[in-house]
Write a structure and sequence with these properties.
D-Amino Acid Oxidase, Chain A, domain 2; globular; alpha+beta; eight-stranded mixed beta sheet; FAD/NAD(P)-binding domain; seven-stranded mixed beta sheet
Length: 568
């Protein structure tokens, strides 16, 4: 078999990821370059025309396919990004109307008489982020941006100590990584500047941060997992634009997180549960917790006459300002969720993702003007950030998430203290530390029969009408993977995996919301072992975050593989 040579492309700016941050970078940079060239041509400004070669690659088969939403969005930065487009033309679904926060017990619900600070959604919109990113992609292409979906950024290219682009993933490999007859080598895309917009726990970003120590003297990033469903319900069940957030059941006082229900047009409802991955119980199962949440009388009443349309899961970077890595290095910048642009406690990141993209675009434009892509030149990104509304959004809540690692009540008291002390909270330290999610587990022996699996063992019955097992749920994610490719949910250390089975009871079988990891008896030894069903993967990357000994690693599969969130 003749091995094809690897194709090489060259561009000025390469953007990896077609979410709101990557698309905002592309659109704003295209606008800046277009304005610059018009002014140079007309004689209004000195200098020379600048090449406007902007290439964006996206691992999903289409823009929006890997965007899991059902979001409440602050429209401010999208309006700033698109000054010539009226707000009414942006494809939001519905303006937020009724906006409630409740505390749930097992059978009852109690409405809070006020909105906690930062949680009022007046002026925001309920929206499908997938729909918005598809719309933004059309605008970017009209401005000359080349968008190529179906290409996974697999490896960073380096030249003389700088990031020089990205190699996309190969295809046509067998399980062992050997080329088959249909082998297609990935493309080497060289760029003067690379922008990483990979979303939460970005594969390339993670490696870059680790190799260059871009998180030195900073808190580790911590995450939540959001497990979501979209339902079609009878007319009049739940109003479009209605927003409901809940705390309490089925989570314990020691867990950070809560549930939500958002009303969409055409009688659709998004329901979900967002849970901090710093939980301590190794048997906690986010997917199962969502199914139990739906059995609460309040939620059941909304969904009982409806039908499931779509299912999915994603992680959210919640560490805040002190968990953000250095945002730049020689030849590269990091934007959006990859950089940790998410505001707690409002649990909003879309407006910050767009803002980060616009700041990166301004930095890229200035670097192109100077023909300088050094770390020193790109530090302008950090300067713009420090002067921005995004920084003002993140700074007052810089210690918010850290306070909740003890328990819910302590976190609430700590948050109140932060509001009175300008963000310090109960400590006079400038920065409160936080523990990495993977280090938080307690041994099974310490749980004394009070584990999640024990507490809810009688309720984990899936009727496939209101509640669904993982295999059925994954069907509703539209997930597809080539079964013959190398397993992208890989095991880095078999011995460490065995230790997790012995010490924690194989938490991967629980934390994965797609049933990728199954605990079975070995056919050879009879001992317990993990069987991997990588074709189920919905790309949430929880395994990469929560594995207690770092024994699991998520890698990009073939470009175009994965979920298809066409309704979300």
């Amino acid at each position: 078999m003749r091995i094809r040579e690897r194709e090489t492309l060259h561009t000025d700016t390469l953007i990896v990821g077609g979410g709101p941050a990557g698309l905002a970078t592309a659109i704003h940079l295209a606008d800046l370059l277009s304005r610059h060239n018009r002014e140079v041509e007309s004689g209004e400004a000195p200098g020379q025309r600048l090449a406007s070669n902007i290439l964006l690659v996206e691992k999903g088969a289409a823009i929006g396919n890997h965007i899991l939403s059902g979001a409440v969005i602050n429209p401010a930065t999208l309006i700033a990004l698109l000054p010539d487009i009226p707000e009414a033309y942006i494809p939001f679904d519905s303006p937020v109307g009724e906006d409630d926060i409740l505390f749930l017990t097992k059978k009852k619900s109690f409405k809070l008489p006020f909105h906690p600070p930062y949680m009022n959604n007046k002026g925001n919109y309920v929206a499908s982020l997938g729909r918005i990113t598809r719309w933004l992609a059309g605008i970017a292409e009209q401005k000359g941006v080349a968008i190529h979906p179906g290409f996974s950024g697999y490896e960073l290219l380096r030249e003389n100590g700088r990031v020089a682009g990205v190699r996309t993933g190969d295809s046509g490999l067998d399980r062992q990584g050997n080329p088959q007859e249909n082998y297609q080598p990935g493309t080497q895309v060289y760029s003067r500047l690379t922008v990483l917009a990979e979303g939460s726990r970005g594969h390339l970003t993670k490696k870059l941060v680790k190799e260059l120590g871009l998180d030195r003297d900073r808190n580790p990033q911590v995450y939540s997992i959001g497990v979501k469903e979209l339902w079609q319900v009878p007319e009049g069940t739940f109003e479009a634009g209605r927003v409901l957030h809940s705390m309490g059941y089925p989570l314990t006082i020691g867990q950070f997180g809560g549930g939500f229900v958002y009303g969409f047009s055409n009688n659709r409802v998004a329901v979900g549960l967002v849970v901090g991955l710093d939980y301590r119980d190794p048997t906690f199962d986010p997917h199962h917790a969502l199914q139990i949440y739906k059995r609460h009388p309040l939620i059941t009443k909304i969904l009982e006459r409806g039908k499931l349309v779509q299912y999915g899961a994603k992680t959210l970077p919640e560490g805040g300002l002190f968990s953000m890595p250095q945002l730049y290095h020689n030849g590269v910048m990091v934007v959006g969720d990859s950089a940790g642009f998410l505001s707690m406690p409002s649990l909003k990141g879309v407006h910050l993702a767009v803002a980060s993209g616009m700041m990166a675009a301004r930095t890229a434009y200035e670097a192109l003007c100077a023909d300088d892509f050094s770390e020193d030149q790109l530090s302008r990104y950090e300067e713009l950030f420090r002067q921005s509304a995004a920084y003002k959004d993140l700074y007052p809540v810089r210690n918010f998430r850290q306070g909740f690692q003890k328990n819910l009540w302590y976190g609430m008291v700590h948050f109140g203290a932060q509001l009175m002390t300008g963000g310090h909270g109960l400590s006079l330290k400038g920065r409160l530390e936080i523990e990495e999610d993977s280090k938080r587990y307690r041994d099974l022996s310490e749980l004394d029969g009070n584990s999640f699996i024990e507490r809810f063992k009688d309720e984990l019955v899936f009727d496939k009408k209101l509640t669904f097992d993982k295999q059925t749920a994954v069907f509703f994610s539209g997930t597809r993977h080539d079964e013959h490719q190398p397993i992208h949910c890989g095991v880095l250390d078999e011995e460490a995996l065995e230790r997790t089975i012995e010490k924690y009871g194989a938490p991967c079988q629980f934390f994965c919301p797609a049933g990728v990891y199954e605990l079975v008896n070995s056919s050879k030894s009879g001992d317990k072992e993990i069987r991997i069903h990588a074709t189920n993967c919905v790309h949430c990357k929880t395994c990469d975050i929560k594995a207690p000994f770092g024994e699991l690693e998520w890698m990009p599969p073939y470009g175009g593989d994965g979920p298809e969130y066409d309704e979300m």
